[in-house]
Amino acid sequence: MNIEPTPPTVKNPPDRFAGDVWLDTIATPHEPDQRMTVATVRFAPGARTAWHSHARGQYLRVTQGVARFGHRDGTIIDVPAGQTLYTPPDEDHWHAAAPGCFMEHIAMLEAGDDPVTTTIWKEHITDEEYLGRGVRDER
Question: Where would I find the Cupin type-2 domain in this sequence (predicted)?
């Protein structure tokens, strides 16, 4: 057994995130056959990811605030703390703090067969996409 060292908090890069977003790594693989990475990610109000997808999908457990998730079809889903969202492999999406509140989630994902494909980053979302022009499902 190991008590893991606590890596420093890092600010996520502006080519992949708009606004202030910080990441704290919880777990990364130790052995060659391990794939799981887990991190706590904190978003300032209105901060958001760029469009992206994950080779093996992703789980996001909202732990504080309200998360906003978007899909290419224009669907926006607001998810409160205590709920988990699953994004299937290769599905384009974005996530953000809902307007006016901070948001924190735990991100859980597995590396792709080629680690370069684990997360494919794309263009930034527009303000229109963030504010929602499509169907909205509030839970």
Answer: 40-97
